[in-house]
Write a structure and sequence with these properties.
Chain A: InterPro entries: MetI-like (IPR000515), MetI-like_sf (IPR035906), Phosphate_PstA (IPR005672). The complex is a heterodimer of chains A (274) and B (304). Chain A is mainly alpha-helical. Chain A is built from 11 helices and no strands. Chain A folds into 2 domains: 35 residues; 233 residues, MetI-like fold, CATH 1.10.3720. Chain B has 304 residues and is mainly α. Chain B is built from 12 helices and 2 strands, in the order H-H-E-E-H-H-H-H-H-H-H-H-H-H. Chain B is 78% helix and 1% strand. In chain B, a hairpin with a 4-residue loop joins strand 1 and strand 2. Classes of the chains: A mainly alpha (274), B mainly alpha (304).
């Protein structure tokens, strides 16, 4: 009886794992199968055409804009915030409050960020539906990711490094940017890569803050579509699954490359001799 | 420096020390400021959403009870009841939990306890990729595969339904549950397993009676995080929900959860209608805060 139960459970464990893999294979496989015929250089580098057959270059540029702008703001703030939490702060109420806020930000669904962005950045700050409004919203979304990963990276820097540097007469600040931050760099980098993945995959918040204009953005103050929003709109409005899947291929390849890069960097981190 | 008279040297040192201390002081203030920005952002988000969302009830005389329990959402006729959407959100989330939790948990157990190394090496990156796929693509997949499948096999007029939403959300919460639960199970000390095996328990018996209970708080955290992902999901759900404004009574009913209500109407809403969408956001927010609270309770208990 016990053996029967054991085998049944063992079977269920195998089944679940295989099911998870099967789901991934089916989803990725379907998207590649459905979309690959559209993939070509013209599709990737071509301008959008409302009559069909055009490319997705404007959406790629828009996506790159959102990545660059939000990281330009979120990375320094996130790293310095993590430095404060790990290196400067005395553990106490204030740190607890900051940690709670960071964790709460992680849990907020992107549609709420979208609502906030739409009323604060778009309306109150009068930025209008624009790339900059979306990027500022995305900045808040990725901030906790960067803070958390940087904190983890700082934790792995051995105490002797700090003590050695301070003993040699370096100030806390000198120790920070000459010793601590360079040794934490791989961890910080993989945090930034994670954030890029989050930005590329985001849709609801961008949909409400950047609008849906399907054209090459003239500046960061123009409304535009990212790849994910484009993929959503062609499905919802035109039912064009093939086009949505082709955009999906581009997105999945980007995510795959980012994942590999993050793994590569964290492997390097583990090999580093400390 | 050596050629300078002693007084000069000390004033020089003092000067550079002053500059150093000043820099140290300023930089620590800057770091503190950056750290406080996340608190500030959170307060700003909560403040704006709650201010906008509570306005109709405070200043315009709408009843909050009617808003929560009202069954009609007709903005053009000034009727704002979101009860069907609350029910839809709750049903969809619970349904996704019923499917997603066992599969995700069992996959996590398999990965940490049973999987041969070579298999774990394939499955773990696969789960990681599943986590990274943009949510829109889950919606596209759901609309292209799951919806027609349900339509054909259950003989529905329209495949966009509660069941389609449940299936898509269950898939989407899988990677969260797998990765968090796997980490928790791996953290259970080896000695627990060895002790149990030494007492004559079987491998499977050890896993389910010793290892899993020991990782309970981490597993609960995994479930709560998965739940958060499901209840907040928007774009994928719009594509497969059908968006009918009725209280779903069966798995095959088309429905509209809270999140999609916001995304669908925010584009053209203004005035009270727009504020009511923020009020919808408050309800969603309250669910999430409740989950965060539960999560904090669980992880503080796990810490002990």
């Amino acid at each position: 009886m016990r053996r029967f139960k054991d085998n049944l459970l063992r079977g269920l464990l195998w089944f679940s794992a295989l099911l998870t893999v099967a789901i991934l294979v089916v989803i990725v496989g379907y998207i590649f199968f459905k979309g690959f015929r559209l993939i070509s250089l013209d599709f990737i580098f071509g301008d959008y055409s409302p009559t069909g057959g055009g490319g997705i270059w404007p959406m790629i540029i828009t996506t790159i804009y959102t990545i660059v702008i939000s990281l330009l703001i979120a990375t320094p703030i996130g790293i310095l915030a993590a430095v404060y939490l790990q290196e400067y702060a005395k553990q106490g109420r204030l740190v607890k409050m900051i940690r709670f806020a960071t964790e709460s930000l992680t849990g907020i669904p992107s549609i709420i960020y979208g609502l906030f962005g739409a009323v604060f950045f778009v309306a109150t700050l009068k930025l209008g539906m624009s790339i900059i409004a979306a990027s500022l919203t995305l900045t808040i979304i990725v901030l906790p990711v960067i803070i958390r990963t940087t904190e983890e990276a700082l934790k792995t820097v051995p105490h002797q490094y700090r003590e050695g540097s301070l003993a040699l007469g370096a100030t806390k600040l000198q120790t920070l940017y000459k010793v601590i931050l360079p040794s934490a760099m791989p961890g910080i980098l993989s945090g930034i890569i994670l954030s890029i993945g989050r930005i590329v995959g985001e849709s609801a918040a961008i949909f409400l803050t950047a609008g849906t204009v399907a054209a090459m953005p003239e500046s960061i103050f123009s409304s535009a579509r990212t790849l994910t929003v484009h993929s959503y709109l062609v499905t919802q409005e035109a039912g064009d699954i093939e086009l949505a899947a082709a955009i999906g291929i581009v997105l999945i390849v980007i995510i795959l490359v980012l994942n590999l890069l993050a793994t590569f960097i964290s492997k390097k981190l583990n090999k580093a001799d400390y | 420096m050596a050629s300078l008279p002693i007084e000069n040297q000390t004033t020089n040192n003092r000067k550079s020390n002053k500059k150093k201390y000043f820099l140290e002081n300023v930089s620590s203030k800057v770091f503190l400021f950056c750290a406080l920005l996340s608190v500030f952002s959170l307060l700003l988000i909560i403040g704006f959403v709650f201010y906008k969302g509570s306005h109709p009830f405070i200043a315009e005389g709408y009843s909050f009870i009617d808003f929560i329990f009202g069954t009609d959402w007709v903005p053009s006729e000034d009727q704002f009841g979101i009860f069907p959407m609350i029910v839809a959100s709750v049903y969809a989330t619970i349904g996704a939990l019923i499917i997603g939790v066992p599969v995700g948990l069992f996959t996590a157990i398999f990965l940490s306890e049973l999987a041969p190394k070579s298999m774990a090496k394939i499955i773990s990156p696969a789960v990681q990729l599943l986590a990274g796929i943009p949510s829109v693509l889950y919606g596209v997949f759901g609309l292209a595969i799951i919806v027609p499948f349900l339509q054909n096999n259950l003989g529905l007029a329209k495949g966009q339904s509660l069941l389609a939403v449940i299936l898509v959300l269950a898939i989407m919460m899988l990677p969260t549950i797998v990765t968090v639960a796997e980490t928790a199970i791996r953290a259970v000390p080896k000695t627990y397993r060895e002790g149990s095996l030494a007492l004559g328990a079987s491998e499977i018996g050890t896993i389910f009676k010793v290892v899993v209970p020991a990782a309970k708080s981490g597993i609960m955290a995994a479930i709560v995080l998965g739940l958060g992902r499901a209840i907040g999901e928007t774009m994928a759900v719009i594509l497969v929900a059908g968006n009918s404004l009725i209280i779903p009574t069966s798995l095959t009913d088309s429905m509209r959860p809270l999140t999609t209500n916001i995304a669908l109407e925010m584009g053209y809403a203004f005035g009270t209608h727009q504020e009511m969408l923020f009020a919808t956001g408050i309800v969603l927010f309250s669910f999430i805060l409740l989950l965060n609270f539960v999560l904090a309770k669980i992880s503080s208990r796990g810490g002990n």
